[in-house]
């Protein structure tokens, strides 16, 4: 059964991917086409052009793709001046022997593959970033910026709460291939070079067409420590139901006692056609998009909230 699951921020591209899947398109191609629209939509304030910059006021994008049939992965992290980065991650998967490129190397590869050098800092993001930074800096720091130590500012400035989401698409295509694609601009005002979980296979995403797929949004600093997406798919391989596999992953997240602890949203599907979206510890209501080929149109649904 063809199906597609994505988080609420997927609205600019969800229908595009559904239409391509309906027409028999390959899963990853269809999802990258949809996510590219999300990345270019200025109203989506957590991904691509609409997202927030790092502490220096520079956009750095993360993305990942995984083909669950071959377990091929492509990922890019902290990429400057490039949209859509999910398509760039796909290019890494198709054209390099590597799994992941970051920073200047990823940008160099983007040029080799024909990606323009884009203007990616939204004027409103620049304004909000500078106002927020100014509030936290002394007059001396402002005068010397950016040649000041950023680490002391990191805990007060970085703002994971401003980024409520990454975009994640999990889909099954006409050949029953399961795949996943992610894209984000990461935490607002993050330390330059910070990678979230969205480009990290096993943490922010994982797919295996025999068992299912999982992808996470919100606090990557937690899912990277628990390999949350891979744990869910491995648990299904070991015979857990989808619900029990997610419960195992949530239990692991809830065992963390140190470091930055906040909300995580888990999106997961199994190879039988079931899906579940679990909101662990996020205060607000979390919604997601779902479509499968039995449905006339996609639906925006409410995730199951869990607080341990
Ligand atoms: N989950 C997105 C991030 O941590 O950047």
TrEMBL record:
It comes from Massilia eburnea. This is Asparaginase. It comes from the Bacteria. The lineage of its organism: Bacteria, Pseudomonadati, Pseudomonadota, Betaproteobacteria, Burkholderiales. The record marks 165-166 as: Cleavage. Substrate binds at residues 194-197, 217-220. One of its GO terms (molecular function) is hydrolase activity, acting on carbon-nitrogen (but not peptide) bonds, in linear amides. Pfam families: Asparaginase_2. One of its GO terms (cellular component) is cytoplasm. InterPro entries: Ntn_hydrolases_N, Peptidase_T2. The active site is at residue 166.
């Amino acid at each position: 059964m063809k199906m597609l699951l994505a988080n609420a921020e997927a609205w600019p591209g969800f229908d595009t991917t559904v239409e391509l899947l309906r027409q028999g398109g390959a899963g990853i191609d269809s999802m990258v086409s949809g996510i590219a629209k999300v990345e270019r939509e200025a109203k989506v304030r957590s991904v691509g052009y609409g997202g927030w910059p790092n502490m220096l006021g520079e956009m750095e994008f993360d993305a990942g793709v995984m083909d669950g049939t071959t377990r091929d992965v492509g990922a890019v992290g902290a990429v400057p001046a490039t949209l859509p980065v999910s398509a760039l991650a796909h290019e890494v998967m198709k054209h390099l022997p590597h799994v992941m490129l970051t920073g200047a190397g990823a940008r160099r590869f983007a040029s080799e593959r024909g990606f323009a050098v884009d203007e990616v800092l939204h004027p409103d993001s620049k304004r909000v970033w500078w106002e927020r930074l100014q509030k936290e800096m002394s007059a001396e720091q402002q005068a010397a910026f950016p040649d000041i130590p950023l680490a002391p500012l990191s805990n007060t400035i970085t703002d994971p709460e401003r980024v409520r989401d990454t975009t994640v698409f999990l889909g099954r295509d006409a050949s029953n291939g399961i795949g996943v694609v992610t894209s984000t601009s990461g935490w607002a005002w993050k330390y330059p070079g910070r990678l979230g979980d969205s480009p990290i296979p096993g943490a922010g995403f994982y797919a295996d067409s025999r068992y299912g797929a999982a992808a996470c949004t919100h606090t990557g600093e937690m899912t990277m420590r628990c390999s949350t997406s891979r744990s869910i798919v491995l648990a299904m391989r070991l015979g857990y139901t989808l619900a029990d596999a997610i419960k195992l992953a949530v239990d692991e997240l809830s065992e963390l006692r140190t470091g930055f602890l906040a909300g995580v949203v888990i999106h997961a599907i199994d190879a039988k056609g079931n899906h579940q979206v679990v909101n662990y510890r996020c205060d607000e209501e979390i919604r997601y998009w779902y479509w499968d080929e039995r449905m006339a149109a996609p639906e925006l649904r409410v995730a199951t909230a869990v607080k341990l």
